[in-house]
Design a protein that fits this description.
The complex is a heterodimer.
Chain A (H helix, E strand, L loop, with lengths): L1 E5 L9 H4 L1 H9 L4 E5 L13 E4 L26 E4 L1 H9 L3 E15 L11 E13 L4 E6 L4 E6 L4 E4 L8 H11 L5
Parallel strand pairs in A: 1-2, 1-3, 3-4, 4-9
Antiparallel strand pairs in A: 5-6, 5-7, 7-8, 8-9
Chain B lengths: L1 E5 L4 H13 L1 E10 L15 H8 L3 E6 L5 H17 L3 E3 L6 H14 L2 E3 L7 H10 L3 E7 L15 H13 L11 E7 L5 E13 L2 E13 L1
Helix pairs in contact in B: 3-4
The chains are: A alpha/beta, B alpha/beta.
Chain lengths: 189, 226
């Protein structure tokens, strides 16, 4: 079971269709069942039976998730692999001591892979879709896997399978999500 | 949240409107009417009939004319959105974008510049499930233009029902076309939607078709009770 976390400003918001449903679709097409929870209501018990967690993005105007980053404290002890997408990457970085800083990017960019971690194996340069008003200065316990001219694009915890990507893999880069699942979430059902 | 919906008259913008109505308050439709039939941003056949759709939905319409020159169209779109904000106090925009990064990024930038939210409730939606929802949720949609092989003239004015979706699905599997037509292969026009108080009846229409390129122009249409 893959836990998908909705970071939008409220539960069952209009943004859910845009930022959560496409990720649910990719995960299900990869053969994994999903359960979705809103970030404001996550409890320890929500991780029972879960083999990986994906934190989704939000609308450009929506930064409510960052108002109380301690809501994501459970990530520090999360026993399963994590992939944070855009707002999800910001939450991952901030909860481990990194910084969220203003950085507006809308549209396609070229991503250069610096470290060919399993997810990015065989990729050196690829186009990706960005939609963010903030980017991340990663915490010390994270390494940078990929960058663009503008900002850090992908990070990974130095000793745990916790990833963040600031670009939106649901647009033209679904392979990022499926490789994360294949590498870290065990066999699909 | 008060929202304005970018409306071309086609299925995607009106289905996005319906999704938005189920979550927030839609206060107006916004239409940019391009002079250029090859418009990069805006769907063209029958776009003037968005006024009739707005009336059917009992919503005000903000309509702006555009010269249809590629990047100048964006200034016209911005002007339309600004008018909608002044007249109706919108806090965000809704679009029917499904896959087009070109359209989505341009609307996102305008919304950001104006401090407005931007919603794309069909973004990367499962195309088959979406087409199914259109039919099940009570949308009456016709094909208003075809711009690609293998669409022949029989498609012009055809209602998108279960049989048409099955045929589109077979064509999408065989040819390089999208099931929803978002690649520009077809354009559509909505004559009824679950939120229409009255439906649109087409009184007179003309079709022009040549070499996989055709339009179904609605000459006369009226609102009738549902």
């Amino acid at each position: 079971m893959i836990l998908i976390v909705d970071l939008c400003w409220k539960e069952e918001s209009l943004s859910r269709y845009e930022f959560v449903s496409p990720i649910e679709g990719i995960v299900r097409r990869a053969g994994f069942p999903t359960v979705t929870r809103h970030f404001a209501g996550i409890e320890e018990g929500d991780l029972d039976g879960v083999s990986a967690v994906i934190l989704c993005g939000t609308a450009l105007q929506d930064n409510r998730f960052a108002e109380d980053i301690e809501r994501f404290a459970w990530l520090r002890t999360c026993p399963v692999p994590v992939l944070g997408i855009c707002a999800g990457m910001q939450a991952v970085a901030a909860v481990f001591g990194g910084r969220i800083a203003p950085d507006l990017r809308i549209g396609m960019t070229e991503v250069s892979v610096l470290r060919p971690d399993g997810i990015f194996a065989g990729k050196e340069l690829f186009p990706a879709y960005e939609l963010h008003a903030f980017a991340v200065a990663p915490p010390a316990c994270f390494e940078v896997l990929a960058v663009s001219e503008g900002c850090v694009q992908a990070i990974r915890h130095v000793s745990r399978p916790i990833y963040g990507v600031i670009f939106h893999p649901e647009v033209r880069n679904e392979w990022v999500v499926t490789r994360f699942l294949e590498e870290h979430a065990g066999p699909a059902s | 949240m008060k929202l304005g919906v970018l409306c071309s008259g086609g299925k995607d913008s009106l289905f996005a409107c319906w999704r938005a109505m189920q979550k927030e308050e839609v206060v107006c439709l916004i239409t940019v009417v391009p002079a250029n039939p090859e418009s990069y941003m805006f769907h063209t056949p029958n776009v003037r009939l968005a006024a009739l759709q707005a009336e059917a939905a009992d919503l005000p319409l903000v309509e702006v004319e555009s010269g249809g020159v590629e990047e100048k169209e964006l200034d016209d779109l911005r002007r339309a959105i600004e008018i909608a904000r002044e007249r109706h106090g919108i806090e965000g925009i809704v679009t029917g974008a499904i896959l087009s990064v070109y359209q989505a990024t341009r609307v996102q930038r305008i919304c950001h510049d104006l401090g407005l939210w931007c919603f794309n409730p069909l973004w990367h939606a499962d195309q088959e499930a979406y087409m199914q929802s259109l039919i099940e949720e009570g949308f009456a949609v016709i094909v208003a233009g075809v711009y690609s092989a293998p669409f022949d003239e029989r498609w012009l004015g055809r209602r998108i029902d279960a049989a048409a979706v099955a045929e589109l699905k077979a064509m999408a599997a065989k040819y390089r076309i999208t099931l929803t037509g978002e690649g520009g292969e077809i354009e559509t026009f909505v004559t009824d939607a679950p939120f229409f108080k009255r439906r649109i009846e087409i009184g007179e229409a003309s079709a022009e078709y040549r070499n996989y390129n055709g339009t179904y122009r609605i000459e006369k249409a009226m609102l009738v009770p549902k």
